[in-house]
Amino acid sequence: MDTALEITGLGKAYKGATVLHDLALSIPPGEIFGLLGPNGAGKSTTINMIAGVTRIDHGRIRVFGYDNQTDFRITRRLIGVMHQEIVTDNFFTIEQALKIHPGYYGVRADRQWRETLIERLGLGSHLHKPMNQLSGGLKRRFMVAKALSHRPRLLILDEPTAGVDVELRRALWDFVRDINAEGTTVLLTTHYLEEAEQMCSRVGILHQGRLIALDRTQNLLSGLGRGRILLRLATPLKTIPEALASYAPLLSDADATLQLQLPAAELTNQLLKTISSLQLPLVGMETDQPSLEEVFLQLTGLSGSNGKKKP
Amino acid sequence: MACRWLPFFTLLRKEVLRFWRVGIQTLLTPILTASLYLFVFGATLGERLSVIEGFSYAQFVIPGLILMGVINNSFANTSSSLFISRYLGNIVDLLVTPITPRQFILAYTLAAMLRGLAVGVAVGLISQGFASLPWAHPWLAIAMAMLASFLFAQFGLIAAIYSNSFDALSMYNNFVILPLIYLGGIFYPISILPPFWERLSRGNPLFYLLDGFRHAILGTGDTPLVVAFGTAATLALVLFVWSAWLIASGYKLKN
User: What is the ipTM of this complex?
Assistant: First the structure.
């Protein structure tokens, strides 16, 4: 079976500055793939080139086996894209726009599908409102509905949940999971890395226009992330034993909790033996998986969400 | 099952709905403006003046007022619709669809022609109350109105793509179209001008559209019909090729 999306040697430069370097990526049908990266990493440029809004400098994009330049009439029908920027046509209401939109793709409006979109995305009570009276979150939900209105086989969501409240965000992801279960391939970008961790079976991380990681989400977490062990102590620890120095020890809770980081390749047994030999006053022990955010920050060399480079 | 021409018909429908939804601004206002012109030049001066032999001033000026409605509204439709789409960013909704450049231009152009010709027909009907026209070559008159409408729909697309602000867009209307219309012989035959100004007026492409349209209706004009049609058709072709190149290349539409 053809891959849903195959990108080879994709490159783009603006005014001499390269923003995407030879991107290669393949997404099989039925996958939910997360394309992550800090602002300006090249995510939206990649999505815009797949959708046909941005010209390709070099490289090739194939959607279900069709070239998106030579067979654009086919590929664009196969793709539904929700852009990061909120764009609406203020001349029309939600209902009118959703009736019109499938026609642009050569697909006749399907009333049942339209009603499903309206219900699942919580648009029912806003159908007759002009676009300029909608909140930012509603406009985003409408844009998701618009992207799905012609039943695409590849759904591209660029920051779909920015500005959407928690309850509706959950409803949106439930819906995305459902349409994915019915066979729609999903490519998404999000700044909420916990969402990518929960939603995506594979993740690619773009940084400064280069794909610096591409793997199953779980592999990235276990291969690159450092697991943590929290030791709860009966009495505060005055000094950290020398034998634990290589595990990046960190004391907290008035020195009554000792956090140790464990390189993934190392055997947990070895650390447990060391802890046991030290005869620490243990009252409890917890393990903690690294989050995708930590993996992301480790790979991109950024500190925190403010996007600053580590010194 | 996807239909090859459904994207075109959808865009055409959307463009017609767009101007229909704001009909007071897009249809009623230009008809009212033209009616005021008709009242001034028809009811007050129409029977008192004559600038060409055998016709009242009202009969002379009405074809020009009809064509002015056609031209202004065809231009306004494509230019405002495409520019607002660019300005608000919702042009991406079209760029990601399978609509071809040919379908894109055709849909925008046909919607603009519908609006322009609707205004022209309305002005023509209202003008019956002020003077009766001989309609010497009715089919040629219709053809010229359609040609003028097509031509200015293309010009509207071009202006919408090159403009980077509402100010810039209004300059096309205020500093190009209006002077060309008013100096193109809408209110006077250029044959009554001094030789220098007459020669200069013959360099105005709008003169050929106005004179050709009036010639087809009254049966007489400043220039032969074949010259008027030839010039208008050539200009329409040039602007069509220009707008087609802009749309197909994605100039200022795609990154």
Answer: 0.87
